[in-house]
Design brief:
The protein has 203 residues and is an alpha+beta fold. 27% of the residues lie in helices and 38% in strands. It has one domain (18-152, 186-196). It contains five helices and eleven strands. The strands form two sheets. Strands 1, 4, 5, 6, 7, 9 and 10 form a seven-stranded antiparallel beta sheet that branches. A four-stranded mixed beta sheet has the order 8-3-2-11.
Length: 203
C-alpha cells in the first residue's frame, strides 16, 4: 500500500512537471550575425526566456535545465553546423542563492542572489560560435530550438530508471515515454548568404 501511494504521488508530480516549457522568441532587432576571423558568430537576446510557470518552479527550489540550440541548414536540408548552449540552474531556497552551471568542455558556475542576473546570463548571448568558415555561398537558414525544463535531464533519467526497477512495464513508463515527443520544434530564425554578412575585426 505504501509503495502504491509513493508511485501514485510520483505520477501526479511527474505529469505536472515533466513537460518542457518552451521559451518565446528572439526578436529580429536583437539578432546580429557576423564573421570574425574564420568564424561565424551570433549576438542575440532571447525575449521572455523564463515563463511564469518556469519561474514559479525555480522559486520552489526545483532544478531547471536550459537548452538553447542553433542550427545552420541549406535549402537542400544539409546541416552545416549545430551549436548547443546547455545550462543547469539550481536554487538554494535556504541560502537564497542561484547557481547557474554551464555544461560544456570547460564547465563554470555563476552564483548570485539575484534572479535578474540569471535571466541576463541566459538571455543575452554574445559571440556565440555557429560554424567555422568557409561555408557555401548560398542561402543558409539559421534555426533555433529553446527548451526551459523544470526537471533536468539527469533527474528525468534517474526517475525513469527508478520506476523501471519497481514497476517495469507499468503504465507509468508510458507517461515517461511521452516526454520524448515534447521537445520543441526547430524554428527558422534568419536567412542569409555568408558573403553578405558583416566582418568584425579581431580586438
Amino acid at each position: 500500500m505504501t509503495r502504491f501511494f509513493i508511485i501514485q504521488a510520483l505520477t501526479v508530480c511527474t505529469l505536472a512537471n515533466v513537460q518542457p516549457i518552451l521559451a518565446q522568441h528572439i526578436p529580429q532587432d536583437s539578432l546580429y550575425i557576423y564573421v570574425q576571423s574564420d568564424t561565424l558568430r551570433l549576438d542575440a537576446t532571447i525575449d521572455s526566456l523564463f515563463s511564469k510557470r518556469a519561474i514559479d518552479a525555480i522559486e520552489t527550489g526545483m532544478t531547471t535545465s536550459i537548452a538553447v540550440q542553433f542550427r545552420l541548414r541549406t535549402g537542400r536540408g544539409d546541416n552545416l553546423g549545430l551549436r548547443s548552449l546547455l545550462r543547469r540552474l539550481e536554487h538554494d531556497i535556504w541560502e537564497g542563492q542561484y547557481r547557474l552551471i554551464r555544461q560544456s568542455a570547460r564547465p563554470d558556475t555563476q552564483i548570485t542572489s539575484q534572479f535578474e542576473d540569471i535571466r541576463r546570463a541566459c538571455s543575452e548571448l554574445q559571440g556565440v560560435t555557429l560554424a567555422r568558415l568557409p561555408l557555401p555561398d548560398e542561402p543558409i537558414t539559421l534555426q533555433v530550438r529553446i527548451d526551459v525544463n523544470p526537471i533536468s535531464s539527469e533527474q528525468r533519467e534517474r526517475t525513469r530508471q527508478w520506476l523501471k526497477i519497481i514497476e517495469k512495464g507499468s503504465f507509468l513508463e508510458f507517461f515517461f515515454s511521452l516526454d520524448r515527443s515534447t521537445s520543441p520544434e526547430w524554428i527558422d530564425l534568419f536567412r542569409f548568404r555568408p558573403s553578405a554578412l558583416p566582418h568584425l575585426l579581431d580586438e
